[in-house]
Design a protein that fits this description.
Two copies of one chain form a homodimer.
Chain A (H helix, E strand, L loop, with lengths): L16 H8 L3 H9 L6 H14 L5 H8 L4 E6 L6 H15 L3 E6 L6 H10 L5 E4 L6 H8 L6 E4 L10 E5 L1 H14 L5 E5 L5 H16 L9 E3 L4 H12 L7 E4 L2 H13 L9 E3 L16 E3 L2 H17 L7 E3 L2 E3 L8
Parallel strand pairs in A: 1-2, 1-3, 3-4, 4-5, 5-11, 6-7, 6-8, 8-9
Antiparallel strand pairs in A: 10-12
Helix pairs in contact in A: 1-2, 1-3, 5-12, 8-9, 10-11
The first copy, chain A, binds a DNA duplex (16 and 16 nucleotides) through helix 2 and helix 4.
Chain lengths: 346, 346
DNA sequence: GTGAAAGCGCTAACAT
DNA sequence: ATGTTAGCGCTTTCAC
């Protein structure tokens, strides 16, 4: 025989629906329905219950609801690296779009410990979260297993280009084309020796951008000779380092297409440090259009990612996948070439 | 009489502990204990259960556990504005520190809709999350009510300076002193007309930094005449706008202390656009030490926030507040003045 | 229009 | 060393 406390009179208890029910003099089911705005409750009762809830300081417990509903209204966002402004800039819109659909977001930052992402896949598999939004090309191994096993999971990938992975809906831009556009612009400005600062060699994003560079050079009949490719990375530090390497070359390029804005920042800083003028001595272009690119000296030519669209479409797709199990084909969004002083022949 | 499904043979069900128990031929309590690594389970049984869990593709359901334990291991982080790199830069460390303590984080971005934060306070009040980390001086009204009502909640505030709010533990730097240090440095470089680009006038952070500026000027016997205070904001755009205003003044300042790095970026870009050289014509200093400040032209003198310490101490305090209900006094961390070319007399 | 009761998946007394 | 059982707070049939 369990001893039942007749009235739970603990002072600092968190109020539950039962408390509200007691105050309003109704049952918990009525409270639940009233608070959910379900039909067969007369306005008078609804009022009374709302009042009681307020009086009790009641708020619904997320876990009890999620357990019961088998749906949490939480989306997990996997972010490789918050230090790259691209991600927070995207996150702003993701957060907004998710909120507008009634979803909350949990974030998992994988920069330091990629293995960590596997733990979050479990959350999805256990039904603790409703869906996952990947913003990196990295895909947790455990997720790959599940997809390989034919399991259908609400996952959307955006920002980073997809490797040939079926089973994960993607929302992205045409990275190759975007890179092509930058180099095409440089070529049309009359630059002949257009170098490329390549990102991490195995990074799909970096590979795509390099491909665009090569393609544009070919189309303009320009050489993509090995000394025009400089291996670098996605950080300012690596951009700075690349500048030193370039300076050691016998012949300087007259333009450099950097695989992202951050490396362009580092490169430009270092080139200027060596007394070179941008764009008079060397033109530079980047990729991402971070907010600083507009105010730096000189303002940087770059590709603007449709971050807001990406975020909205991604969330919309994820929602559809969660709720209707639909909308699972890929989307390519338009990018925009932003031409600024760093690439203009004077 | 509830009809009990004898064996739940739905194909795509999410596996539960009961499934694992059935496979391993034990009860769910044994599974629970084994998976939690609790003592009285022999190694052999533990192995068998681990094997069964793997086979079933089992992962624990967060909501069921949280409901039962009345503890979610989730911390909510309130972030005013992700577009200000200060916040993602701090978030990196928050995320890391939380993860190391076994906490997950949910974020609530309040830039667009501040009222939204109230909804999240409910989560705390309902026991759906364990604690809240505020990274802004803005405090949700509902939270204020609760604190005023004497309710004790696990909340920590960091990054932004605290207004006179008792009941919320703070982890921060001495903003006034930090601003003082910057201006003191400028004065020691021999600058006489040291202007200040003020942030949003009602923002506590902006007020503190302005106070530091005034104090340092006074200590050096310099004037804080009204024409040396330029009302601006925390964004690049506002920094740019301020440059125009400065140019219209009859007498230019010889140094400008900006209330943050971002406005300094905008200011410098605009001043250079007007043909002024930094620091030869006007020295500039900022506040925050964003990563771009080191590579810009010229590199920017600024105050480095101890973001990592802030994050770690905040999480540590929050954890203590949640688990032991202790450690609720304020912490002041050391800042660091970073002197770079933008403020050096040549 | 409203209430009683079952049950979501888990953990922890309490039994054995 | 392991099983039985109650119950966390909620939603939702089903009955009235």
């Amino acid at each position: 025989m369990a001893k039942r406390k007749p009235i739970p009179t603990n002072e600092s208890r968190i109020p539950t629906m039962a408390d509200v029910a007691r105050i309003a003099g109704v049952s918990t089911s009525t409270v639940s329905r009233a608070l959910a705005g379900l039909p067969p409750i007369p306005e008078e009762t609804r009022q009374r219950i709302a009042q009681a809830a307020k009086e009790a300081g009641y708020a619904v417990n997320r876990h009890a609801r999620s357990l019961r509903l088998k749906r949490s209204k939480v989306i997990l966002v996997l972010i490789p690296n918050l230090a790259n402004p691209n991600f927070p800039d995207l996150l702003i819109h993701i957060d907004r779009a998710a909120y507008d659909c009634g979803y909350d977001i949990m974030i998992a930052h994988t920069a330091i410990d990629p293995g960590r992402s596997d733990r979050y896949v479990d959350e999805l598999l256990a039904g603790s979260i409703d869906g996952v939004l990947l913003t990196a090309s990295y895909c947790p191994p455990r997720l790959l297993e599940c997809i390989a096993a034919g399991r259908h999971l609400p996952i959307v990938r955006t920002l980073s280009p997809t490797p040939d992975l079926t089973g994960i809906t993607a929302v992205q831009i045409d990275e190759v084309k975007a890179a092509y556009d930058v180099v095409d612009h440089l070529a049309k400005q009359g630059y002949k020796r257009i170098a490329h600062l390549g990102g991490p060699p195995k990074e799909i994003m970096a590979i795509a951008r390099r491909k665009g560079w090569e393609k544009a050079l070919a189309d303009h009949g320009l050489s993509a000779s090995p000394d025009l490719y400089i291996q670098s990375g996605f950080t300012m530090i690596e951009g700075q380092r690349a500048a030193d390497e370039i300076r050691s070359r016998s012949e300087l390029p007259d333009a450099i297409f950097c695989s992202n804005d951050e490396s362009a920042y580092g490169l430009i800083a270092a080139l200027k440090g060596h007394g070179l003028r941008i764009p008079q001595d060397i033109a530079v272009a980047g990729f991402d259009d971070l907010s600083f690119s507009a105010v730096m000296d000189p303002p940087l030519t770059t590709v603007r990612l449709p971050r807001r669209d990406m975020a909205e479409r991604s969330i919309q797709k994820l929602k559809a996948l969660i709720e209707d199990d639909a909308d699972n084909d890929n989307t390519i969004l338009a990018h925009e070439l932003i031409i600024r002083a760093s690439s203009l022949r004077s």
